[in-house]
Amino acid sequence: MKKLKFLSWAFLAMTLSLTACSDSDEPAPDPTLEVSQSSTMIPAEGGKVTVNVNSNTDWSVSTDANWLKVVPAGGNGTAVVELTAEANESYDSRIANVTVKHEADGKFLSKNFTVQQAGKAKPTYHFDLMVSVGGTTGMGSSGVTSTLIRNLTPDEVEDANNTISFKGIGVDIQAEINSEAIIKNGYYYEAAPLSNSWYGKYIVNDNQKVQTVNKFEMGSVVFKAKQYTHAWIADNTLVFLGADKAVSNRGSNKATSNTIMWSRVKDNGNALSMEAEGVLDLTTPTKEFKEGGVTAFSTTGLATYRASDNTIIYAFVDNDLTAKTLVKGVFVAFIDPATMEVKKVIKDDRAETLSGTAYGELQQDKMFFDENGDLYIAGENYIATTNSTSSTSQYGRILRIKKDATEFDKDYLGYDQYQDGKILSMDYLGGGKIAMTMQDPVKTGLSASRDYYAGWSQNDISTYYVIYDIASGKATDLSEIPFSSGSFSDRVAVVNGKCYIASSPDTSKEQLPAIYIYDIASGKLTKGANIEAGFYINRLNVVDNLK
Amino acid sequence: MMCQFYQAVVRMHVLCLMLAVFTVTSMGQTATALLQGKVTDKAGNVLSMASVAVKGTVTGTYTNDDGRFQLKVKPGNHVLVVQFMGYDSQELQVDTRKKQNLHIVLQESAYLLNGVTVTAKSKEQVLREGAYTVSALDIKSIASSVTNLNDLVSRSSGVNIRTDGGLGSNFDLSLNGMSGNSIRYFVDGVPLTTRGSSVTMANFPINSIDHIEVYKGVVPSKLGGDALGGAVNIITKQERRNFVDASLSAGSFSTYMADFNAQVVLPKSAILVRPQFSLNRSKNNYKVHNVEVWNADEARYDTVTRRRFHDAYENLNAQIEVGVEKKRWADVFLVGATYNQTDKEIQTGTIQSIVYGKAERKEKALGLQAKYMKENFLLDNLSLNLHASYTWDHSITVDTAFQRYNWNGTYKEQSRNELIGRERMYRHYKRPMTTVRGNLNYLLNSQHSFNLNYLLTRTGNRRYDTVDDYYPYLKDTFDPTNDVILRHVLGLSYEQNLMDGRWVNSFFLKDYVNNVTIEQNDIPLVTGANDVAKKTTKNTLGGGFGSRFTLVEPLSVKLSYERAQRLPQARELLGNGSTTYPNLKLKPEQSHNINLGLYGNWQMNQKNLLYYELTGFYRKVSDYIHLRVNDNDGTAQYENVNDVTTKGLEGEVRYQHGRWLQTVANVSYQQSLDMNQFLENGGVSATYKNRVPNKPWLYSNIDVTLTGFDLLKQGDRLRFNALYQYVHWFYLSWEGYGYLASKARIPSQHMVNAQITYSWNQDRYSLTLECDNVLDKLAFDNYKLQKPGRSFMTKFRVYLR
């Protein structure tokens, strides 16, 4: 407002002086040259602004910036100059100096003004790419493999000409936290990092260091590193759940028999605190699956929070220690987050087990809610010929619990058209589409048979990616992405209408590790940045920028 | 038996000596006179291994076990120089035409090597000058001053010992960059494990040791182990006379050590009785700094200093040997029994912030053994050395507490045990071990000799758990297993001495036969355990050579090479029947080990002696056996995956001035490169040719000893020793990747140890005061695991002969 006022006064003054001039010297008027503004702005996304040139003679316009188009390049008398700029692809604003000048008969007049274009909005997030380096050279006692994290801007990830390097850059987290830490709101959280006795909150920043924000001693519930699952009840409330490992098939000592422990941790910004803890009472409602012996729970299970009816949904499997085998089927408990009271337990054996019974959703995504609030849970069936519940040779099945329901959706079984492809991770893209990380050593040509252990290990090149359509039940391969290693890793990140997929292929076959970008709306896949070869890629995560 | 073995060793050394150091008169030489005689002390006790040399020549020999020697010399006048450690050397005029049979009596002295024109070489020096690269450490002469063997061994060039903490804590010895299973330990040529699995260099009774041989990379075939990177051979003391040797030590952190050795020859029956007993105990309650304890009131961690509270260590070791010597049917025949018992509390995990308060390890081992030795067995110049033993070894890991400790010494209940975070365990490992060693040595003539060594070891590994005795509801949660590994190692070596001992060669072949049996109780798993043989036998061949050539005194060149092998163990081959899958395709770990060195012994004048040694080494390890764990389900399998190449250089200078100053300085540098071009999944590896992290690569020792004689009274001795040890800092993880400034590292160490020993009455009594870590520096070998601060120790020893 003030600026406008000033400008209008200036304009008035100029007009006055012009008239004064013409008054004094009528027959041969001196050349005059004025511009309407001394500065103007173009928005970051690009656009056009105009500036009036008031003159009684000829003039030319020039600029020192190559991003600004000036039309026309010159004129005579009073005219409008159009200044056009494309979108500014940089986060920094830029300024163009524009000069309007007249030069003739030894007379020289010039006026300058500036055009400023704001930089594009800084993203509110970045990517953390986590790799492990060093493989497994067992010559020393320990500490040979370490995990590195690179903080990357969306541009760095998307730039197909970029190669993401770790030489002298990136945070070595080995002495601070595990790669399985929980990422939320720009922070890393972990219970029992490196087997220490605390809940910790950390920042991994500047490609340089791990910074401890705060840590709080675990209470009477003591988790083992990496052996828990978690659910965020609110942005500042995190619930950890995990089986205590005192499994037993003799029930004489109830106090130490198998239980699921939980704790609720509050994050008050700079201070963590453990608010409440306890064990889940799964004994009362578990009669239906208790037949045949005492139940021992899988190490973690999977937990999530359903806001619509304020319920923690906890999926788990049951170890029958008498038979030394897993009970086939997926169990789900509905838990009141305030009291941690188990309201109900259900079972569905259309999937023989959960996808991943250990490590919860640390470094993998196994559950999600769609737009309707329906919950999808990744399950697996054992490949028939091995038929062993300790076998890792499995293929996927997806179970559903509808919004607010406390039963499995008996009408729905996902991925049931397929007898191959183990679901390692599910990332929901919206619109009924899931980006799934799959494993099958036969599919990737690593093994002739699905039955054997060979080919199913963490670092085998046995994983691939599909887009699964929930409605049609069809899985479409993202076949442009090379097969990747990493059966326990989280290499898919969804943000801003795009799905980013990191692939860690067989680099001996002249394929480079790279990030691929799947545009969710168009279904178009483009290749983004390459990643320096030689690492195992653990995670690609979207991390909020800290304010 | 021990004696016999010792004699064999001595024989070989004498042989080497004769060939390496002195001119050996060839068989057919004419116009020689035979000088022979006997060397004894004043009391008439024979002195073996005394050197007898002809002054002004390179002719000389050593006395045998009976103190006798023979020398072929030109007829005429000679000056003989007779020397023996701990005795004044003696020069005497001999005219071969008048007298050819001599009785030489040496006077005891209280010091060691005295510089004379013809210097007799100590056993240590003889070893150093052999064809192999070996550090030899004389223990016997300084036993009064030694309280910790590891400290002493770690002063050698190329040796680095990383410990977790105080007395009895875990340690890892690395030799030229190779450590752990790559290094094998022996006692008089027999695997050290025959004494019990918890007997290590750290608790071996010091007073019973004569010297220690540290073979780097190339291990002679007389040591029949599958050592990939080297071997440590402890040679025990063999006295010819009755003695009592007792010492008592006490020091900081409630550390006490007692050591008793004796030898009695019963007068009538001539039966030899040799008892030995040692006890080591410590609370190890030294202070640890900058540890965090939870302050519940303020809801924060406070950084404090605390004492260790669960690190006590107790080790008892006893041995008795009974037998006869110098019989017609045996030079030595001894039977004996050993007993070892160790109790050890465990204080921390892999980093200092993980604290334990209840877990412990115990071990008991009882062994029976017999030794037999005969010279001129069946043939002249053929000697036989036999050892047979059986050891009951029982170790227990106790981890039954569901408690989580902190540095305040308090705990919280948790639902899993301390060490592995699982069910309570009271895990027994019974590893009965049968060992048979036979060694035949044949001296064809003064230039050629042959040695055949056979070592059989049969080790059981029975695991079971008795936690259900205490917690009945845990019954049957652990499936017992039993593996048996039977191993034959056959070694053949041929040694030659050419050019009057200027050129010494040794060639050897080793054949390893590995026979493994495993018991699998579990349900056949995905691999189909039914298809897997429960027994497997593999044959592997290795070999090498050593060569030493003296260009000119004092400059000799040494080259040695071994194609070394380490055989896979039962677990590695056959898994554990549940979570670890078998891998019958597992190959032995292999290594090309090369040493190239220069050394020389420069006697500058009467008083000044300089010894130098410069060695370059190269180790190319392939098929390193590694456990590959599947993160998904915790299953695992051993694989041959890793290749590492280590190159390095080490140098040592020893300077001796008269008998009062001895200094040793050495520097070791090594570079271990990861030579895995590919990752496990076939992809290229980023760390190919990168320096392997978490390994010290530059370290140095400076050791100064000052000795004063006859200070307060005749025959006393004051010895002062100071040691400075430096280990350069190194990164915990790969230094090529990630932001270096914030990378975890193990900081440089500067350790100064000092000790002073006063001994009197011809070493009969001695008193040592020692101060370790004089500067009270915070030191770590492993990431964040603090070693003790400044500590004191005193040792009193009585040695009656």
Give the distance, in angstroms, between the N- and C-terminal Cα atoms of chain B: 22 Å
How many domains, in number, for the residues of chain A?
5
> What form of chain A results from the Cα inertia axes?
elongated
Structural class of chain A: mainly beta
What is the spatial order of strands in the main beta sheet of chain A? 2-9-8-4-6
Q: Which two chains form the greatest contact, residue counts included? A: A-B, 89 and 88 residues
Output the CATH homologous superfamily of the largest domain in chain B.
TonB-dependent receptor, beta-barrel domain
N- to C-terminal separation of chain A? 30 Å
Rounded Rg of chain A: 32 Å
Quickly describe the structure:
The complex is a heterodimer of chains A (547) and B (801). Chain A is mainly beta. Chain A is 6% helix and 46% strand.
Account of the 3D structure:
- The complex is a heterodimer of chains A (547) and B (801).
- Chain A is mainly beta.
- Helix content of chain A is 6%, strand content 46%.
- Chain A is elongated.
- Chain B is mainly beta and 801 residues long.
- Chain B is built from four helices and 47 strands.
- The longest helix of chain B has 19 residues, at 2-20.
- Residues 1-30, 110-120 and 521-530 of chain B have low confidence and may be disordered.
Draw up the topology in text.
The complex is a heterodimer of chains A (547) and B (801).
Chain A: H1 2-24, E1 33-35, E2 39-42, E3 47-55, E4 58-63, E5 68-71, E6 74-76, E7 79-85, E8 94-104, E9 107-117, E10 125-133, E11 146-152, H2 154-158, E12 163-164, E13 171-172, E14 182-184, E15 187-191, E16 198-205, E17 209-217, E18 229-234, E19 237-243, E20 260-267, E21 272-279, H3 287-290, E22 295-297, E23 302-306, E24 311-320, E25 325-336, E26 341-348, E27 353-354, E28 367-369, E29 375-382, E30 394-401, E31 422-430, E32 433-439, E33 461-469, E34 474-477, E35 484-485, E36 492-495, E37 498-503, E38 514-519, E39 525-531, E40 536-544
Parallel strand pairs in A: 2-9, 12-39
Antiparallel strand pairs in A: 1-3, 3-7, 4-6, 4-8, 5-7, 8-9, 10-11, 10-40, 11-13, 14-15, 15-16, 16-17, 18-19, 19-20, 20-21, 22-24, 23-24, 24-25, 25-26, 27-29, 28-29, 29-30, 31-32, 32-33, 33-34, 33-35, 36-37, 37-38, 38-39
Chain B: H1 2-20, E1 33-41, E2 51-54, E3 60-62, E4 68-73, E5 77-83, E6 90-95, E7 101-106, H2 123-128, E8 134-138, H3 149-153, E9 159-163, E10 171-175, E11 178-179, E12 183-187, E13 190-191, E14 209-216, E15 230-236, E16 243-251, E17 255-265, E18 271-282, E19 287-295, E20 300-307, E21 313-325, E22 332-345, E23 360-374, E24 382-399, E25 403-405, E26 411-413, E27 425-430, E28 433-443, E29 448-465, E30 481-498, E31 503-518, E32 535-552, E33 555-566, H4 570-574, E34 580-581, E35 589-603, E36 608-629, E37 636-657, E38 661-674, E39 698-709, E40 717-727, E41 730-731, E42 745-746, E43 749-760, E44 765-772, E45 780-782, E46 785-786, E47 791-800
Parallel strand pairs in B: 1-7, 12-15, 34-37
Antiparallel strand pairs in B: 1-4, 2-3, 2-5, 5-6, 8-14, 9-10, 10-11, 12-13, 14-15, 16-17, 16-47, 17-18, 18-21, 19-20, 21-22, 22-23, 23-24, 24-27, 24-28, 25-26, 27-29, 28-29, 29-30, 30-31, 31-32, 32-33, 33-35, 35-36, 36-37, 37-38, 38-39, 39-40, 40-43, 41-42, 43-44, 44-47, 45-46
